[in-house]
């Protein structure tokens, strides 16, 4: 049997010259990885699967080999390891070498569409078929809320049908949130209250506004209470986060351009985002627009204005809310906030401003819950493994409510807790802040009691 | 190994660990060809056992089939220790990461080999204890790997390296036996210290499946000082001055200008970018003592030419400084696409001249060389920055590495302080051991591993598989004795 070529750069290069690198992969970024292994203990898929191929170092190595033509991008084993990654970027935080893992992973995924059937379906239906289309999205949102209003989740739970239906677990255990089928869109302008300090755009998002419209309202409220004019663009846009993280480069590029257009010409001091995945994507439009020379510069400039809601509010100096919420709350770091945007303290600081609220820490708050964009749909088994750890740590923390900052995490953890029979609601940091500023909408019973 | 043999062996291994945890797919083998060193070689089969009993069976099956066995833990080895140069079976410990027992009153813990070094200290912290040896890679490297290489770290200056903290081992031997050496509740001084023999043997005698370690109460206070020097020479003279002053701090680390730049780029720890060199010192103990020691230390630093001595004002600042130091190697990835780390030791008193010689090599060859190292015990880590995509550079860098290790040996030091011999330094080992030394070591190894199947191709010069170590070539300097006791390398 012929020996497979090894990646013995050193001598091979002396012999054969520098290998040519696949277009589409930035080799300088790949070579930032010095295979030291310091990221391994922070990787959730390595913890579940124990295989080097499912570790950050192993993935970087495979991408390097593929880029040099030593293995094929469409090798099913390459794809398996690459798509088994949560893209949670915990390795990026752990890496002292500054490897931009998220960027490299997106490039690698763009080189090879997945072969896993479930993965392909999710892409066709959700990423390309639904999210980019405002009208279809509105209909889907209406349907989702209508089924909730009709108490379908309870029926699914009682009958046990959720166990066999696709998406059954998410339908049966939905998060606290909107259930009125009709909802009034956010006003184009919510004026600042008190002294005006800034004029900001608010991304209401695709899924976010259909499932968590109330969270958007409360984000706007918190911003306006802090002296911001809040502008919501008329054009309904999806920022392309789920598509880009899944390697759907073309869809991602198109949506990035559309999002920039939606916010342009509005004289904004910042574009505020309350979904961590979206924020992290919008801060990296340079990467999404890498193949569009005419727009890349503008993308960099746009990204500089993007801020996570708690990041923005805390930097501005939060005006203290007055309503007491006497609750023990633990904050779950959304991966794309803590690892993607390095925003770690601000959501905690915002929560601590709420009178009566006691912030407790759970173990491994910065570990992925397994939601990971569309991952919980494409790879349910590994996703469940991560969720099980998360639920255990939440229960151990003694928290009464979990706060997070991303719709995906809220959906996933909420499902996990309810299914485990735990009455621990999962809400957004901006929900708690909004309630503390006087909003009443959709507070779960335990929060309502704590506000009394 | 031909295809049929491989299939047969794989089948038997799968009977032990299950299909999922033994595999031979050539694609997957590519992921077990490397560690943190630049060396690579492909294994035939990878096994991920879940218990000591499984490891013992795996080792026996391989030994019966005369197939080489290489232990691989976190593969953060900087010496190619886990690279299976003779192919065969790689055993990893990713599933054996349980802390089996913590016995605070008797100051000991029992762990599986795959327990991450830092995870052990984190588990001990709420109980008021820690595990002392703290390699810079402690966030990832494992106790099993530390036993393999006899790892050191910044804080092993005062408290001793891995061998001083391991009191017993359970070992899977090629004979198929699972034996225990040491590991009794009370320390005993009778009989041979077999534990000491195994620690640092780099997986060439047997595989540690269970490890008894000493734990230590957390020091009540730790104080970290950073002394800023105009150049490395003044800083290295200061190291001797500190030791001469009669106080041995828990740690003395040095970083030169280039390292500081890389560290700051990576972690914004607060190191001064305009310094020529920096010493990081730590003292620990009860508050009154620490204050006194800290002041005396600061005085010695100033008298030995420090332009400034800063004391970390709180735990956050202290952590930041150490995080910067411990991330230093990886931070080099920001200065250069590739680098090559060495691990030479010189007597402390020879630090200034050795560093000057290394600098001269850098000037002569045009390769940048940074220095970030355990200054207190003279353990140098020169890092040569290079670009493997430039033809000829890797070979040139290997020659530089050889020259530097030669320099260390000639100064009365050693070719490795803590990273191990592995694959990388098996020829350099001749600079410190004579043929007779090597033969004695080989005979000891063969008591446990008569057929040379355990991590073959490592530690000993030559191929290390069938033959006894090859004789030294003419040009190699001959040394009568091993390094211990030679000069003041060991503190
Ligand atoms: C950034 C960085 C910084 C580092 N800093 C330090 C430092 O400060 N001090 C230091 O000493 N080292 C340092 N190292 C080197 C390395 O981390 C150590 O050698 C460490 O002990 C290796 O542990 P590991 O778990 O990665 O073992 P591996 O690399 O997997 O294995 C190391 C050796 O031990 C053998 N081995 C592994 N498991 C077992 C077992 N169960 N039984 C028997 N043999 C076994 C292997 O065959 C191999 O020869 C550093 C490395 C990096 C990348
Ligand atoms: S990603 Fe970073 S931490 Fe992980 S192996 Fe590569 S360089 Fe090391
Ligand atoms: S992004 Fe997350 S899952 Fe993927 S390799 Fe990094 S740590 Fe592991």
How do the helices and strands line up, and which of them pair or pack?
The complex is a heterodimer of chains A (452) and B (491).
Chain A: H1 9-16, H2 27-31, H3 44-49, H4 56-67, H5 76-83, H6 90-94, H7 101-110, H8 117-130, H9 134-149, H10 152-159, H11 168-172, E1 189-190, E2 198-203, H12 207-211, H13 213-225, E3 228-231, H14 241-245, H15 249-263, E4 270-273, H16 276-282, H17 285-288, H18 293-305, E5 306-308, H19 309-316, E6 328-331, H20 335-338, H21 346-352, E7 358-360, H22 375-378, H23 380-397, E8 401-404, H24 407-419, E9 426-428, H25 429-436, H26 445-451
Parallel strand pairs in A: 2-3, 2-4, 4-5, 6-7, 6-8, 8-9
Antiparallel strand pairs in A: 1-3
Helix pairs in contact in A: 4-7, 13-25, 19-21, 23-24
Chain B: H1 3-17, E1 22-23, H2 26-29, E2 45-47, H3 52-64, E3 69-72, E4 89-92, E5 99-103, E6 108-111, H4 117-124, E7 129-130, H5 143-149, H6 156-159, E8 166-172, E9 178-182, H7 194-198, E10 207-214, E11 216-217, E12 221-229, H8 232-244, E13 251-256, H9 257-267, E14 277-285, H10 287-303, E15 308-311, H11 315-326, H12 328-331, E16 338-341, H13 351-365, E17 369-374, E18 382-386, H14 393-410, H15 435-448
Parallel strand pairs in B: 2-4, 3-4
Antiparallel strand pairs in B: 1-2, 5-6, 6-10, 7-11, 8-9, 8-10, 12-14, 12-15, 13-14, 13-17, 16-18, 17-18
Bound molecules: flavin-adenine dinucleotide (FAD) and iron/sulfur cluster (SF4) (2 copies).
Residues 42-45, 56, 59, 85-91, 101 of chain A line the site of one iron/sulfur cluster.
Note down, in words, how this protein is organized.
The complex is a heterodimer of chains A (452) and B (491). In chain A, helix 4 crosses helix 7 and helix 23 packs across helix 24. Among the domains of chain A are: 9-115, Fumarate Reductase Iron-sulfur Protein, Chain B, domain 2, CATH 1.10.1060; 318-450, Rossmann fold (3-Layer(aba) Sandwich). The N and C termini of chain A lie far apart (75 Å). With 452 residues, chain A is of the alpha/beta class. Chain A has helices at residues 9-16, 27-31, 44-49, 56-67, 76-83, 90-94, 101-110, 117-130, 134-149, 152-159, 168-172, 207-211, 213-225, 241-245, 249-263, 276-282, 285-288, 293-305, 309-316, 335-338, 346-352, 375-378, 380-397, 407-419, 429-436, 445-451; strands at 189-190, 198-203, 228-231, 270-273, 306-308, 328-331, 358-360, 401-404, 426-428. Chain B is of the alpha+beta class and 491 residues long. Chain B has two domains: 1-218 and 427-491, Uridine Diphospho-n-acetylenolpyruvylglucosamine Reductase, domain 3 (2-Layer Sandwich); 219-420, Vanillyl-alcohol Oxidase, Chain A, domain 3, CATH 3.40.462. In chain B, the strands form four sheets. Chain B has a seven-stranded antiparallel beta sheet with strand order 15-12-14-13-17-18-16, sandwiched between helices. Chain B has a five-stranded antiparallel beta sheet with strand order 5-6-10-8-9. Residues 464-491 of chain B have low confidence and may be disordered. The chains are: A alpha/beta (452), B alpha+beta (491). The interface between A and B is large, with 45 and 53 residues. The structure holds flavin-adenine dinucleotide and iron/sulfur cluster (2 copies). Flavin-adenine dinucleotide binds next to strand 3, helix 5, strand 10 and helix 12 of chain B.
């Amino acid at each position: 049997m012929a020996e497979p070529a090894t990646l013995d750069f050193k001598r091979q290069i002396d012999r054969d010259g520098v290998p040519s690198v696949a277009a589409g992969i930035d080799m300088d970024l790949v070579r930032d990885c010095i295979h030291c292994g310091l990221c391994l203990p922070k990787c959730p898929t390595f913890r579940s699967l124990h295989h080097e191929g499912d570790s950050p170092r192993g993935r970087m190595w495979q991408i390097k080999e593929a880029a040099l033509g030593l293995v094929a991008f469409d090798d099913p084993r390459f794809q398996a390891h690459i798509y088994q990654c949560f893209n949670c970027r915990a390795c990026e935080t752990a890496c002292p070498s500054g490897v931009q893992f998220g960027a490299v992973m997106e490039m690698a995924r763009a080189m090879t569409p997945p072969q896993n059937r479930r993965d392909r379906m999710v892409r066709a239906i959700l990423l390309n078929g639904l999210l980019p289309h405002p009208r279809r999205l509105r209909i889907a949102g209406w349907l989702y809320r209508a089924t909730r209003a009709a108490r379908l989740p309870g029926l699914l739970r009682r009958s046990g049908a959720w166990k066999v239906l696709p998406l059954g677990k998410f339908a049966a255990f939905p998060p606290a949130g909107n259930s009125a089928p009709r909802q009034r869109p956010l006003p184009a302008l919510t004026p600042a209250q008190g002294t005006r300090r800034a004029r900001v755009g608010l991304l209401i998002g695709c899924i976010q506004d259909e499932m968590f419209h109330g969270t958007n309202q409360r984000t706007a409220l918190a911003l306006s209470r802090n002296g911001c004019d809040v502008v919501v663009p008329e054009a309904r846009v999806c920022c392309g986060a789920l598509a880009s993280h899944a390697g759907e480069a073309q869809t991602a590029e198109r949506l990035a351009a559309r999002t920039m257009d939606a916010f342009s010409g509005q004289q904004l001091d910042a574009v505020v985002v309350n979904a961590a995945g979206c924020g992290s994507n919008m801060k990296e439009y340079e990467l999404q627009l890498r193949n569009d020379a005419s727009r890349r510069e503008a993308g960099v400039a746009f990204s500089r204005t993007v801020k996570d809601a708690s990041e923005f509010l805390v930097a501005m100096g939060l005006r203290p809310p007055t309503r007491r919420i006497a609750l023990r709350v633990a904050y779950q770091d959304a991966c794309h906030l803590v690892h993607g945007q390095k925003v770690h303290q601000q959501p905690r600081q915002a929560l601590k401003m709420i009178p009566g609220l006691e912030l407790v820490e759970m173990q491994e708050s910065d570990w992925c819950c397994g939601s990971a964009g569309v991952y919980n749909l494409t790879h349910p088994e590994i996703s469940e493994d991560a969720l099980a750890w998360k639920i255990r740590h939440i229960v151990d923390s003694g928290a009464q409510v979990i706060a997070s900052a991303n719709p995906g995490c809220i959906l996933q953890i909420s499902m996990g807790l309810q299914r485990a029979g735990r009455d621990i609601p999962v809400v957004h940091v901006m929900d708690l802040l909004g309630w503390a500023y006087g909003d009443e909408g959709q507070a779960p019973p335990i929060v309502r009691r704590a506000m009394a | 190994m031909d295809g049929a043999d491989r299939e047969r062996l794989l089948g038997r291994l799968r009977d032990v660990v299950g299909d999922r945890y033994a595999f031979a797919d050539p694609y997957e083998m590519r992921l077990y060809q490397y560690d943190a060193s630049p060396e690579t070689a492909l294994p035939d089969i990878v096994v991920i056992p879940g218990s000591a009993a499984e490891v013992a069976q795996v080792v026996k099956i391989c030994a019966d089939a005369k197939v080489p066995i290489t232990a691989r833990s976190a593969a953060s080895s900087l010496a190619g220790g886990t690279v299976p140069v003779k192919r065969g079976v790689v055993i990893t410990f990713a599933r054996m990461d349980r802390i089996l027992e913590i016995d605070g009153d008797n100051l000991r813990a029992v762990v599986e080999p795959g327990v991450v070094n830092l995870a052990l200290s984190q588990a001990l912290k709420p109980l008021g204890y820690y595990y002392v040896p703290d390699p810079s890679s402690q966030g990832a490297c494992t106790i099993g790997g530390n036993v393999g290489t006899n790892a050191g770290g910044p804080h092993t200056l005062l408290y001793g390296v891995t061998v001083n903290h391991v009191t017993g081992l359970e070992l899977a031997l090629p004979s198929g036996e699972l034996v225990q050496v040491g590991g009794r509740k009370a320390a005993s001084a009778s009989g041979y210290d077999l534990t000491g023999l195994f620690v640092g043997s780099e997986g060439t005698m047997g595989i540690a499946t269970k490890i008894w370690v000493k734990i230590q109460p957390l020091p009540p206070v730790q104080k970290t000082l950073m002394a800023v020097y105009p150049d490395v020479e003044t800083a290295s003279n200061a190291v001797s001055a500190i030791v001469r002053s009669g106080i041995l701090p828990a740690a003395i680390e040095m970083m030169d200008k280039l390292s500081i730049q890389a560290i700051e780029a990576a972690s914004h720890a607060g190191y001064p970018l305009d310094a020529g060199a920096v010493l990081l010192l730590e003292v620990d103990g009860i508050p009154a003592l620490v204050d006194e020691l800290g002041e005396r230390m600061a005085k010695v630093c100033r008298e030995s030419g420090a332009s400034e001595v800063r004391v970390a004002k709180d735990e956050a600042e202290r952590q930041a400084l150490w995080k910067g130091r411990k991330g230093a190697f990886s931070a080099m990835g920001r200065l250069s696409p590739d680098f090559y780390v060495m691990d030479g030791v010189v007597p402390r008193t020879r630090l200034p001249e050795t560093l000057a010689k290394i600098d001269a090599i850098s000037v002569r060859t045009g390769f940048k060389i940074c220095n970030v190292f355990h200054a207190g015990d003279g353990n140098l880590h020169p890092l040569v920055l290079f670009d493997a995509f430039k033809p000829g550079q890797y070979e040139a860098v290997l020659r530089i590495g050889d020259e530097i290790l030669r320099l260390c040996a000639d100064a009365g030091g050693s070719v490795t302080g803590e990273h191990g011999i592995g694959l990388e330094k098996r020829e350099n080992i001749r600079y410190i051991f004579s043929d007779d030394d090597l033969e004695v070591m080989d005979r000891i190894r063969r008591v446990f591993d008569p057929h040379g199947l355990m991590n073959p191709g490592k530690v000993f010069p030559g191929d290390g598989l069938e033959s006894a170590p090859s004789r030294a070539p003419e040009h190699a300097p001959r040394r009568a004795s091993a390094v211990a006791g030679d000069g003041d390398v060991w503190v």
